Amino acid sequence: MEHYLDNAATTAVCPEAAEAALQAMTACYGNPSSTHAKGREAKKLLDRARAQVCAALGCAPGELVFTSCGSESDNWAILGGAEAMKRKGRHVISSAVEHDAVRKSLDDLEARGFEVTRLKPNSLGGIDPSAVAEALREDTILVSLMLVNNETGAVTDISAVSRLLKQAGSPALLHTDAVQGFLKVPFSAKTLGADLISISGHKIHAPKGIGGLYIRSGLRLKPMIVGGAQEAGRRAGTEAMPQIAAFGAACEIARAGFRENAARMTALRERAVEKLRPEIPELVVIGGGAPHILSLSLPGWRSEVLINWLEAQEVYVSRSSACKKGARSHVLEAIGLRPEVIDGAIRIGLSRMSTEDDIDALCRGLIEAHARLSHR
């Protein structure tokens, strides 16, 4: 029996999202820009999906632009945000534990002559707002910090960062990569206070290939993709209606069961730790905060060995971010963990579809691996 526990990398598409995508492909297949009946039908579907996503995000429909993924949203927010603000300065604040979509966008800014301050994380992998306050300068034009760290689950208080920027009278735009936080930890665009928020569908049981960027009303970013007038002229290209419809359906389902799902994932995290600690004394629990991410390490072991052992028992976890493709985690290095802890780290990603059986299979596998491999 399969036990999929890599939901921080991607999730299975839920039945409601799959049905919405199928209907958009086979029944409501018109181009939303067309003026005939099939086009108007598709436009109605587009508006409905946008409303569903915006309801989950807590923003107005005009503040959401659909993108192809979270990485595109991050790229556009950072590169576009810095470009829009460059007349007021060229200093950017971020952190050393961001996703590569942010890190490489920051590298690009540095190549263009911007100065980037990368803040050191706390012991959990989050960023303390006080560190932002210390790094803030008169020429700071953009702050980009992840809401939930994709490797440790650490939560950064973006609302507090927003407040301190306002209190300091800073003109800096605030962007947050909320891909791992969206519909996993409680927030809305209003409560975060960010100017730009990146989200993605495939982390919440929608298909891959769909994301979104919240752009605060009144803020204008130069389009990265030019052509037609789709998305109010902000992102050209015929809308990916199957993915968009599925994204809307997934948001509606996740929003309706948000509290129950968060509580259940938190209980599953705790169940795993409670079962493993007595059997594996050297176990290290890394970070934490978000209900759906559990980062563990067996110091002295190789994570690849543990992952392969678990895979043989149809238990699927990951080493760190799926985007790293085997490279050592820059996040765990930035936290300051010992090399043996980093090399023995695995990430368990939960979703609303995860079960106690999944956790029990994980624990059995790790305990058995620890017992057998220890005697080799």
Task: Describe the model.
The mean pLDDT is 96. Strands 2-8-7-6-5-3-4 form a seven-stranded mixed β-sheet, with helices on both faces. It is globular. The longest helix is centred in the N-terminal third of the chain and has 21 residues. With 376 residues, the chain is α/β, with parallel strands linked by helices. The chain has two domains: 126 residues, Aspartate Aminotransferase, domain 1, CATH 3.90.1150; 242 residues, Type I PLP-dependent aspartate aminotransferase-like (Major domain) (Aspartate Aminotransferase, domain 2, 3-Layer(aba) Sandwich), CATH 3.40.640.10. Strand 3, helix 4 and strand 4 form a beta-alpha-beta unit.
Q: What's the quick description here?
A:
With 376 residues, the chain is of the alpha/beta class. It has helices at 15-26, 37-57, 70-85, 100-111, 129-135, 158-167, 189-192, 241-256, 258-276, 303-312, 330-335, 339-343, 356-374, and strands spanning 3-4, 64-67, 91-95, 115-119, 140-144, 173-177, 196-200, 211-215, 284-286, 293-297, 315-316, 345-349. The protein folds into two domains: 3-11 and 258-374, Alpha-Beta Complex (Aspartate Aminotransferase, domain 1), CATH 3.90.1150.10; 15-256, Aspartate Aminotransferase, domain 2 (3-Layer(aba) Sandwich), CATH 3.40.640.
